[in-house]
Amino acid sequence: MKDCYKTTSPDRYRILTDKAKEMRTKPTEAEELLWQYLRASRLGIKFRRQHPVGDYIADFVCLEKHLVIELYGKCH
After folding, report:
1. Tens-place pLDDT, residues 31-59
2. Secondary structure letter of residue 73 according to DSSP
3. Which candidate, 1, 23, 24, 30, has a CA 20 to 30 Å from the CA of 57?
């Protein structure tokens, strides 16, 4: 079950990775707060932030666990 998620197509990969890189420099307040927790590996698993998955850029991804986290505003 190595590749259960859809990876980004090669023709869109560069566009999405450039946009993801830009998005990492301007996180929302909610993304910054969660990233401070996730980056310390307190859960014992590695997360990536603003990572291309399919035709989208996910806020946080744990590739090992096939887990995607999306945040929408302060209430989340």
Report:
1. 999 999 898 877 899 999 999 988 899 99
2. S
3. 1
pTM score: 0.77
Helix, strand, or coil here: 36?
A: helix
Pair of tokens at residue 32? 């910054």
Identify the residue whose tokens are 């590996």: 41
CA-closest candidate to residue 5, choices 51, 60, 67 = 67
At 58 the three-state DSSP class reads strand
Q: What is the largest CA-CA distance in the chain?
A: 36
Question: How far is Cα 72 from Cα 76, in angstroms, rounded to an integer?
Answer: 6
Give the dihedral sign, CA 39/64/43/76.
positive
- Distances in Å between the Cα of 9 and the Cα atoms of 19, 21, 63, 64, 71 are 15, 17, 17, 20, 24
Q: CB neighbours of 74 closer than 8 A, spacing ≥ 6?
A: 29, 30
